[in-house]
Amino acid sequence: MSDSEHNILIIYTGGTIGMQPSDSGFTASKGFEQLLKDHLSENQYAQLENSTILELDQPIDSSNATPNDWYKIAKCIANNYQTYTAFIVLHGTDTMAYSACALHYLLGCNIKPVVFSGSQIPLSQAASDAHKNITDAVAFAKHSQLNQVAISFNGKLFSALRATKVHTSDFSAFNSPNAQPLASIDKHTQEIHFIDKPSTAKQTCNKTLTTSNLNKLVTKPPKDKVGVLLLHPCISNQVIEATFDNPNTQAVVMLSYGAGNPPDENRYLLNSLKKARERGVVILNKSQCFQGSVAQGNYAVGSALNELGVTSAQDRTLEDLVTDLYINF
Ligand code: ASP
């Protein structure tokens, strides 16, 4: 496809990229299209040729994002799916990985490119990373090889399901600790190098934008359908009880130690897991380690989990687990 045949829908949802300073710190604000006109160079702006900017009604700091926002973005893409060749979602970095995973589960894969991006410094401020992140996202979105939801940040492209925010301020805000990035872009030539072969990506991905995905856009489960329990040496029974004794909660991601180890001498925890499993709650055991996979039962402390029917989350990200359980379970 030649450059002029691409038409990209750029959806601005808020986040640092379009924020303005205020007395209480940076705040999400409207008027993103004008910001682009004011702050991109002529050459950078020319790269947005054939793109349409769509600003969501109320731009937000993504720390305030809820499933409502995921569904709003997904509906926007579904409604415009036939009109555009690709989609860019400009989003706050704080919960970008959650929204990108949610979009994956709502839209499927083997889809037109959906590229999330944002920045660590607002477009309106000096030395911002926004300009480069926008033009990189456009370049990645023009690649028909990309058939899934991905996050583009600081010259790298990550699969939504593998990405996580790893730095509060560095321009390399995202990484995929348990997987290679999908692609990278040359700083000078803007040439894209795909690390994963496209055929492999297609084979492992068999969901497409179908009616059944779109039906998921209609019914939204309660927010507390999925719980997350962080195990730590000072954990109280009250916290454990609050996580498991909620009748709305159908699934819990338990963040355990190392290879998936819980404190098996904590009888209150083990008993709560048992009772929750008996009433059908799915429990996924994710390691608190930044890298590596759960090997549940490698240690005696972890083998009780196998008996209780707790499932290993392998090396999946928390963002992937929470959105998958919320949308699909
Ligand atoms: N708090 C901001 C947000 O997530 C941070 C950012 O965009 O980088 O919306």
Describe this structure in words.
The protein has helices at about 30-40, 40-45, 65-80, 95-105, 130-140, 200-205, 210-215, 235-245, 265-280, 300-310, 320-329, and strands at about 10-15, 50-60, 85-90, 115, 150-155, 155-160, 165, 175, 185, 190-195, 225-230, 250-255, 280-285, 310. With about 325 residues, it is α/β, with parallel strands linked by helices. It has 2 domains: about 5-215, Rossmann fold; about 225-329, Rossmann fold, CATH 3.40.50.40. The chain has an 8-stranded mixed β-sheet with strand order 2-1-3-4-5-6-9-10, sandwiched between helices. Strands 11-12-13-14 form a 4-stranded parallel β-sheet, sandwiched between helices. Strand 12 (about 250-255), helix 9 (about 265-280) and strand 13 form a beta-alpha-beta unit. The two termini are about 40 Å apart. Aspartic acid binds next to loops.
The secondary-structure element order is EHHEHEHEHEEEEEEHHEHEHEHEH
Query: Helix/strand/pairing class, anyone?
Result: alpha/beta
**Strand-residue proportion:** 15-25%
Mind describing the biggest β-sheet? 8 strands, mixed
Cα shape: elongated
CATH level-3 fold name of the largest domain: Rossmann fold
- Unreliable residue stretches: 198-203
CATH architecture of the largest domain: 3-Layer(aba) Sandwich
The total of beta strands comes to: 14
The count of helical stretches stands at 11
The helix content, as a percent range, equals 25-40%
Q: Name the bound molecules.
A: aspartic acid
Query: In angstroms, what separates the terminal alpha carbons?
Result: 38 Å
Total discrete domains:
2
Order of strands in the sheet with the most strands? 2-1-3-4-5-6-9-10
